[in-house]
Amino acid sequence: MKNQLTFAHVTGALLDNKIKTYPQHRLVRDLFSLCLLDEASDYGEASDDNITFSRWCNGARPVPVDILNEYKNDTGRNQMITDFKNKIIPNLINVSNTRYLLEDMINNSRKIIGITKADELIAIDDNATFFTDVMLYAILSDHNRKNLYSPELTDILLSNRLPAVVKEFIGRNDEIKECGRLLASESVVFINGIAGIGKSELAKYYASRNKKKYTNIIYLFYSGSLRKDIAAMEFSDDTSDMDEDALFDSHYRLLRSLHQDSLVILDNFNALPKDDAFFKEFVKNDFELLVTTRCEVKQYASIKIKEIASEKDLLQLFASHCPYSDDDTETVKQIIREVHSHTLTVVLSALSLAAGGLEPDELLHELKQCGLNITDSENVELYKDGDYHDGLMIEHLRILMQISRLNSSQTDILKNLSILPVSGVYKNHFRNWLQLASLHDVNYLARYGFITDDIENKKINLHPLIQEIIYEELNPCISNCQTLVNSLHSICLMHGLEVRKPDNTIQAMISVVENIINDNSACYLLFLQDMFPYLEKYSVRDYMSKLADRISCLMEQEHIDSVCDRALLLDYKAELAYMRKDYDVAVKKREKAIHLLENEDDTMNTMNQKRYINLLSNLYNNLSNVYLALKKTDKATEALHKAFEIRISYADTGIIETHDMLQQMLNLVNMLILAGDLELARLVLNQYDALVTDNEGYNTLDYGCYRLASGIIALKEGKPVEAEKNLLAAESIINAAMDTSDSDLASSDTAVSAFDNYVSKNNYLKSVYGYLNNLYARWHKPEKALEYKEKWLNTKNEQNKNITHRNA
Q1: CB within 8 A of 474, min separation 6: which ones?
Q2: 491-523: b or e for each residue (b if 16 or more CB lie within 10 Å)?
Q3: In a 10 Å sphere around its CB, with 0-12 CB exposed, 13-18 middle and 19+ buried, how is residue 770 labelled?
Q4: 282 with 311: CB under 8 angstroms?
Q5: pLDDT above 90 coverage of the chain, percent
Q6: Helix, strand or coil for residue 257?
Q7: Residue 500 has pLDDT above 80, yes or no
Q8: Phi first, then psi: what are they for 62, rounded to 5°?
Q9: Which residues, 6+ apart, have CB-to-CB distance to 482 below 8 Å?
């Protein structure tokens, strides 16, 4: 329950009971006569004052502390009592009703303000003194709480903005008023009702209509875990090295700073509060929370949404989607009765007429032939596991979809959307994934209501009911959604090239994996296998475990028993153990995988041989990482050296040209430097140099890494001139590579192929600065040492600034 004794609430009671000729600005000037002039000096000042006073009265801004200070002493209090007696009370229509409203606020706030204080205020007999003490308590309470206004998140919040409200929103005036009334007294309000009745649109419309009241409006679409939904928000100061826990902590810290002038909408919360572990904590915050749900929730204030009762509103809603229906109002009335006034079905009925070119009597005939019996019988407390069939209008909506006569391109778009997240995907991403020449058909489907187009957040999605129908009708599988699967698979293969954590893409991949029908096990398995390292890159740890289980289950069901597939699964399970810091288990699983491969009969075609060699080399490389975690440096170096030798031995397959090889060589060089074996480190580094210069040239990041490693070795050998030469060259080359990447990115729509791992380059540059600082400090060049120390310290800030700029 909220504290109702705020300046906004108390002033609201006075304004509700004043005479018409007593404006708000006059009331405020009379209230604070010690500090405010009776009249503004000119029109401009009057306009500014009115805006300021309105902000005080609606709670958007507090009454300034200098005004409060004037009324803290007896002189100020006595002046306010006099002003109430002589100026304000005479302009109230009903003084007793005003007092009754204030006493009701006091009683409703007893748990917050305390029983003693509440009794003390109500016991005051004189109305002017009562109004004054309540008003002063409210103003003082506002300032003591220090939470009247929230920080504005507009500039740093990159997602979760309020979605666009449908232009054809009609009716629901009583529900809108009830929503405002409940939020004025309660921090949490639920909007519940059956699927498709208009809960989400009501919440969005209320927020849009009251947007001037709120400093921030944040929209969260519930995906099954409130904690994950908060972590998935996007803020400009997020960085690529933040895992889910770090993102959650950062985002929730900002949410906790919000107060009653901010509104959070939690949409599609089709669960009981007790079923989400974090919900109980979430509702303790000071912001207003509006929740839409299909569930009956008893412990919070709620609004039950039913069919629109007004026939006039329903006809207007129908006509707004199908203008020519006005010519046959009586038939439209029968159509509305036939669908039992269900909001979504009324809209889709109108859209079916418009899209299918039917006459109203033809649609009515189709609906009657359907023979549905739709009732408001969904008095179910909780819907589990997506099983919504019993109470829904599935058959009815299916008929409407058929009537609309969509073409093959449009049905293909809907089919692919039916396996993507119901929370939506970015419109341009979807276009790229499906390789659409244009968005014409997407926009057509949005115009006729089949697709929801969230213009504000640049996302599209299907309404949950429509999504279920499309899924059941079109049976999306790997073979008929091949373009989408291939596009997402390609992104997995290019993992590591994005600037930030691509949450929307990750959600899309997981949704496809969970929902697509598997009619091509080989393609499906390869997608799952290549998705694992992509999720590993972005620390999606909870789903990595599920993904490994899914791979294992698929191999068992389809009797897939190739040695490479079994070894790869062992490697993934070892990685899960490694992330749990269960290093001994990780070693055993990787050694078992290596044993499987090394005992395999080497009779395979070139492609399988290349996969075999690459996997075996990577297993040794990954094994070295585990040994390194166990601080077994000798074994780590030995394993990494083995990974390197395997690639060298099979150079004729082309395996040596892969970037995995270069990374392994750099890792080996680093380990040899740490072990003090500088001669062997130089030998490996020279081979690295030859590989890079032959295949890439001298103006690349990989060559910059060669000069960096050469500088480190020279520094270790006590050769300052050689070290300086190599380190300065590394600085120049890596800087140039970063500048090229930035310019490419600025002119690129995809950013994936152009960015070339900005973060890695930045980390290499930090290493260069660190070693140059070390070199100049030892070489007794303090000015140069200080210069590179400052560069080193500024590099991370520069990285964050560039990421923030690019996100914006």
Answers
A1: 411, 414, 415, 418, 480
A2: bbeebbbbbbbbbbbbbbbbbbbeebebeeeeb
A3: middle
A4: no
A5: 29
A6: coil
A7: no
A8: -80, 160
A9: 523
